[in-house]
Amino acid sequence: MTRPVHTYLFCLPPSLPPLQCTWLSPRRWLNLQEYQSKKLMQESGVAVQRFYVADTASEALEAAKRLNAKEIVLKAQILAGGRGKGVFDSGLKGGVHLTKDPAKVGELANKMLGFNLTTKQTPKDGVKVKTVMIAEALDITRETYFAILMDRACNGPVMVGSPQGGMDIEEVAASSPELIFKEVIDILEGVRDDQALRMAANLGFKGPLQRQAADQIKRLYDLFLKVDATQVEVNPLGETPEGQVVCFDAKINFDDNAEFRQKAVFAMDDMTESDPTETEAAKWDLKYIGLDGNIACFVNGAGLAMATCDIIDLHGGKPANFLDLGGGVKERQVYEAFKLLTADPKVEAILVNIFGGIVNCAIIANGITKACRELELKVPLVVRLEGTNVHEAKRILSESGLPITAAENLDDAAKKAVAAIKK
Question: Which residue from 28, 212, 315, 362 has the least number of CB within 10 angstroms?
Fold first, then answer.
């Protein structure tokens, strides 16, 4: 699957003025399945449907019987959206099914587990389903939207809510902005009782349900802090005919920088659906995203990477990837980056564009020469270096005896890379 350069704009969440958008380095986000997010919420006292998970049809059947629910919902567990309208290669239509018969759960699970589910968001061959979630189906009398997220404009967490849930919040923000409510949270004080009650009222909860919703809001904030989340989005936060406030569906985004103290959470990372190259890159703290072209880009910094891709395109070439080295670069990372780039059969040239601020250009140069020799590089290599220790770096490259084309600036580098593949 290819991804255009403009996907690196990450909004929290988009189209909700006056929230701001923030440019982030591309990275491999922590991927949790739906049941894993529900488990985290459950552990923080957040009200969710009763559920079990199963890896076999017989386990699913037993889980359905244990639920002892009036109605059961069976969901295939994959990371891609659009499961309800997906199709299995077993012939079964839909990755989400409702039934009142526990025996039916076993039959359906038998047509899900081990088969590929194809949706609008999966690769064309679909994704193999290895786990299903069996949950109690609850009626919803009213749906609302609620989220807690980090907002740079407010220097901390913000609550965002709307009485119009169960739909794209961007549509609500565009058509009915007066139905979007926002509460800035003091990171030191936390969510105050009056804030939680006011948000619950703005979401349309009345009477005893207002207090219940406020309690859920505070518990969601506790979860937000506990797992070092950057966003907890519940859509819908629903009201049932029995007078319960339940989080029916949620998305949790985590701060990758907190991995060192969230080992249990990050150990749940499901990488089975991730691009193998991106996964390998992440092992070396490299941010890699594959594109459609044939000129590999080896850059430090997301902004510089995007500029490099754009200038290659301007000169008639097509970038093969977006690879960001970041700041604390070591020679081994440079070597591993070259391994990733040269493993792509589409790559016909490599453009290295380094602006050394906190990056030592000499480290980059040593890594390049080591990679070129050990990997026996067979495609043209254009290198543009600028910044810290650049003169030593240029000396290392020029004395290496390797066929490396030096460039004076980014424009010159892009021209030479495009020309190299046209020879």
Answer: 315
